[in-house]
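User: For a reading group we're discussing how well predicted structures match intuition. Take PrsW family intramembrane metalloprotease. Before you show the prediction, I'll give you the sequence so everyone sees exactly what went in.
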Amino acid sequence: MSRYGYGGLGVAVLMVAATVYGVVQLLVLSSPTRSVRVSTVLLAIAVGVYGCGIVTVLLEYAYTRTVSDQPHGGALLNTVKTASYTVDPVIEELVKITPLLLAAWNVKIRRQWGLTDYVVTGAALGAGFGLLEAVARFGLDAARAISHPAGGWIIPDSLQAPWIPGPDQVFAAWFPAPFSTLDFGGAHPAAETSPHLVYTAAAALGVGILVRGRRWLRALGLVPIAAACAHHMFTNYAAAQPGARDTQSLAEDLNGILWTVPLAVLAIAVAADMWQIRRAKRTVPGVLLREERAGRTGLTALTGYGLWRVPWSTLIALRFARMRRALFYAAASTPYADIAPLHRTVAWTTAQIDTTDHQHAWQGIGLRTVRQAARTLRDRRRLWFILISVVLALPALVFLGAGSFPAAAELQERFATSDGPAVLMAFGIAALLWTAWHLTRLLRTWQTTSALPLADAHAIIRFRIWTALGSLIAGTVLLLRMQQEGLGAGDKLFRNFHLLEALNNFLAYLGFALILLALLALFPPGGGLAFAGAGVAAGTITVEAAIHATALGTLGVVLMAAAGGGAPTDGPPEGQADAGSQSGSRPKSEETSAVTEEQQQSFDQSQQHLNSLSKRKQSDEVGRGFEKDGQKYKPEAPLLKTGKHGVDWSEGTARAIRDGRPQGQFGSAADVKYAAERGAELGPNKTGFFRLPEGHNCIEYLPDGTTRTPNSIFVKVYPNGKVHAYPLTR
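Assistant: Thanks. Here is the predicted 3D structure of PrsW family intramembrane metalloprotease, as structure tokens, for the group to look at:
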């Protein structure tokens, strides 16, 4: 072994890598049934660090001090030792699943998350909790670290020294722990399994069963939670009794198979969720893709679509699959009225994917298109917040990031001496003020997004709020304790404390560094959530229109561009009777022309005649048009087919929800012919509004998902006599 012989990654960097990699393994394995986004699960790691970790510290500190202060409480050291395998494991496991219980308090999250979502998110919470222990215990030991020939770093504390596994060990293990214990003389060490990830994954399955189960099945949810607490207590008991060889041997055997627990738990969750998905597919209408309706599986249909324009169509397919699973989970136990907004969003996305499921739709869609789409959702205030947060977090990144490389350990030593602790403390106080201000923004965003139907948006806001609260509480406790005890930024804050002895030698400036790093988890939401929050708050978009932004974000704009939905209309916006026309003139009074008796009779005769023909012959006859005063007039071809406002148009509801305004549709060829005749009365290059005749079949779709019968049409005549029109209500 040598001091700097191993040119590997830093101590803290390796611990973070092990933590994230374990969660990523579950993310990949859970792909068939997971509805929660990757970013949401990764954010749960921060909640585990700053939410669960901080609350556990306070509870365990309060318990041990309260018991030791009792007349027969005994010495603090003995109280801490006993609590380590009696009370503390129960506290830790219950605290780690508390965010899941609080999240499930929201009805949308409770209904839209499947068991898989609970397991994966719970594992992330546990992994974050374990990361806090590891960083608090060894984050400042870069100067003492010794490289191991097989990889990683040894912290020379004892014959069974702590060992930070290297990349080779991390990426070769299932759910690797941030640190392990290296036996004396071990030449080929292997990364141990992260116990907190395992415990919380199992307990999270119990939470999912408690929340989603029915009747007596809910009682089964207590079993995984109790098992996690029991195993945690037994492991800590074995660690506290080094002389009990039989206990030690059994604990080692159990730890050797610990990696199988998340796989078994996930298998149970996936099987249960797959059953619910298959059941919901048969009952929820309008959400199967055209290829699925033709007999192909969902995986085959989405894979084929995802290959049209990698990575954009791929990302859209993945986002749609997760959103549809959320709908299926909600449909399993929710009345339709409660999931109608989400159903409309999924139905709209289904129609858009069907429309763009061919190579031609994706021609011209590339990085430039995505940049333009992102520009429409850009929030310049978000960029400023990110910049300020990164600047504030910079000292902590240097201290715990670059400084955790043993070759650059002098950076940590400089922060630990002279003015280094004071600098971290000053930046930490500034970060607390910045976090407090951001917390108020998050609370306002919580209110403005409360009506959004997708659970992921609600989970992201809650996770960020809990991370901010945990950071503020930690900073407040640090400052109060320093003031009460007269401690400096470089002094130790806690002694004789459990939490795997992580805080036994906890230094104040390490706490401020962790508070600074919390800012990196508080970046304001981008894409759809930022657009929806700002738009709803400002009143520039309706809640229904914001649904699509939160569901797809930038990808939603890309999808609309591929479908041609982003192109400007050739007439005034539907539903805006006073909008100016884009060419030609309008009736001077801008009034709607009434239906004359002659026009009504002509419509009745035309309707009777066309109803006697087949649909194809109706389209052919009306599509040929007619001449008037030497000018030929005919309706636009899409009006007689599946084009926008056409008689066979199938996207009226989805378009109304997306645009946040009514969308009219002609109901028959006779309706289209009536519009063409009114256009002939106007003449080329003119526009006007006309009342619809009695007996028409037009329909108007509203943004809230309902419909009504329109009473008018807008007509625009091009110079060549082609007539564009759509129904509306005036």
